[in-house]
Design a protein that fits this description.
There is one protein chain. By secondary structure, the protein is an all-alpha fold. It is 88% helix and 0% strand. The chain has four helices and no strands. Helix 1 (11-63) packs antiparallel against helix 2 and helix 3 packs across helix 4. The relative contact order is 0.06. The model is unreliable at 1-8 and 60-71 (pLDDT under 50).
Length: 261
Amino acid sequence: MSDTNNPGSTPESTAMRNMAQGNQWEDLRKKARQLENEIDLKLVSFSKLGTSFSTITANGFDSSDTSPLLSASNSEHMFHTMAMEIEQLLNKLSDVNDRMADYAGSVSVASPSAALLHTLQRHRDILQDYTHEFHKTKANIEACREREELLGSVQREIDSYKSSSGLNRRTDLYLKENEHIRNSERIADETISVAMATKENLSSQKSTLKKISTSMNTMANRFPVLNSLIQRINLRKRRDSLILGGVIAVCLVLLLWYAFR
């Protein structure tokens, strides 16, 4: 109800209420502007943080294949802290805007002026812009973080594959070297076995020849005529050898004499 319909109201009390309501509106406007300034500064810092995240992601992936991307604990802590602070400020500004809307639609203000409605709408637009910018920047940063996690996992898999491949190569070399050593030992064992078999065969042949020689001597001693016959055969072989040597010598002398004549 308006002040004119309130019988207990006086012009002085009405003026005081109007002044109090005017002060309340100004306080709300000051609070809204203060929150808007704080949010604006926070959003600028938050946007710089997102830009630095994007730069680190691009340069980090191009410059070094092993450097972690966006994985510093201080960056993660800064991101979450700033996001929480901005959300709290946005909630406070939304609450102030709601209080300003309640004031504009209160009973004590029967017909709010166009300037008051314009001011209220401007603060709502600013809140909407700040909220949209915050969510956009946050989404960009989260997209960079997700990209970093994907690239980091892929890079870790590549590094793991490289390290495992190098280990496998070293293991293959050790296995090949071990196989060569075993082959050398096997060849050496085979050579030793052949040498021992040859020694056994020679020993067996020596024993056989010794038995034959012993048997021949025994037979020669047992049959003297046979021994005499063998001696004659040996003497004839020597004589034939001497005759053959003499003939060869005479032929050589004649050939030399004919050649130098």
